[in-house]
Design brief:
Length: 119
């Protein structure tokens, strides 16, 4: 599945993360990098498992409502890290400890990293 209008999809996802009070939202653009796993990562933090589950459900629901798109795959529904894979856009929703441990921003630092503000 290729996301036709990636930036519109990213806006929908990040707005929904903000609506559910997700924190430390970053967007990593890999479009100019060869052999990247996808074109974009969206990464955020939730304070509890319940919150990260809520963010995940809300993102999936809103993307489907607005774009009729379902994720190719979702992993970690009952853990400290939920991944929603829209093929070209992968959303990572972490609890703080897991995000620090895996440090995706450091690991994928070759991409263009942009912090997202909910204001």
């Amino acid at each position: 599945m290729v996301v036709k209008n990636a930036h519109k999809t990213i806006d929908i996802i990040t707005d929904e993360i903000c609506n559910k009070k997700g924190e430390e939202i970053v967007y990593i653009n890999f479009e100019s990098i060869n052999n990247s796993p996808c074109d974009f990562f969206i990464i955020c933090t939730g304070k509890s498992n319940r919150q990260i589950q809520s963010i995940s459900k809300s993102v999936e629901k809103k993307v489907f409502e607005k774009l009729k798109m379902k994720p190719w795959q979702t992993e970690g529904k009952n853990s400290d890290w939920i991944l929603i894979d829209y093929s070209d856009i992968v959303v990572h929703i972490f609890k703080t400890e897991m995000r620090e441990h895996y440090d995706l921003e450091g690991l994928w630092g070759d991409g263009k990293i942009k912090k997202y503000n909910c204001e």
